Amino acid sequence: MAVNERxxxxxxxxxxxxxxxxxxxxxxxxxxxxxxxxxxxxEKTKQYILQRLNKNIFKQPIEVMENISGVTSWxxxxxxxxxxxxxxxxxxxxxxxxxxxxxxxxxxxxxxAYAFIEGASSFDAVEKEEDFYQSAVAFGRxxxxxxxxxxxxxxxxxxxxxxxxxxFRAFQAAVKADACGRAEQVKKEIQFVLDREPLTxxxxxxxEEGKLPLRVTHNDTKLNNIMIDNATRKAICVIDLDTVMPxxxxxxxxxxxxxxxxxxxxxxxxxxxxxxxLHLYELYVKGYIEGCEGALTEMELEMLPMGAILMxxxxxxxxxxxxLEGDHYFKTHRxxxxxxxxxxxxxxxxxxxxxLPQMKAIVEKYK
Length: 367
Hints:
Layout (H helix, E strand, L loop, with lengths): L4 H7 L7 E7 L7 E9 L2 E9 L8 H21 L21 E2 L5 E6 L4 E2 L7 H17 L18 H14 L9 H9 L6 H7 L6 E3 L8 E4 L5 E4 L6 E3 L1 H12 L17 H15 L5 H5 L1 H22 L11 H18 L1 H11 L1
Antiparallel strand pairs: 1-2, 2-3, 3-5, 4-5, 6-8, 7-10, 8-9
Helix pairs in contact: 3-7, 3-8, 4-10, 7-8, 7-10, 8-12, 10-11
């Protein structure tokens, strides 16, 4: 197959081995342009991933790559110390011929490359409960391996990403502006947020008081960012590190629960179908704590359920703000989709608030 000249030109700038045979679009990502490259090495072939970063989303691509380089180098060292397989348990950056973790072409576009992890797959949806458990182990292990990484040396590539008080102020501004004249129709949802203003400060206050440590956080802890071994069905590697930043471990945990332990779709219209599945929640708690291998503090463990509530609340608040502002941030495919999204999140928040004693008891069981 003839290789696109632009891709071929970019590929030539990286330290790949062999002769380029093929380049095909790869994966289901909506942000970066991703290609799987196949090279011949004598009688064998070897595959790599080549990506063009979306500068509209990642406005500081050099900082993104500096974060990824630091974190993957650290994980590689830890995996080596544990006697693991550094070719499959680490996201391995292929440097450019200039020795950088990226290449900038003549149009100012940023490219990067990774070794392809053979014999493993990622999944967009939970096919088996074990998959959700394995994702928990993997993200817990990610925390464990990076527990002593100096998180404050990382760039904050998306400012105030999980600064919930700041998100609340932005929400208040959206309500006040009422740019699309929608506030009158969503009074109940607006009041739901306003009633929980004290909730927005809980984790940030604990961090400021030194009771929750700053950690390396992934910030997109979904199942499809885990590579699962095809033969053993065990999670082997965390990928998609574009949003790695300093943050709170409980937020990474919470976002996984928000997305993975809900009984319905994120934009489900029938709210009777929405609740937090405590069985799935328990599976994730068990796997996450096992994966962390004792890296979390007592306060972090205690705040895991609050992380689930707060991340769900924050996301719902952002959906509602975007609806009030005209649906300009989150992509929508139908009218009212962001409003439906916000309502599912608020139903989850209410359900988790009611189940908080059980959620705390489950953490106690495994810590």
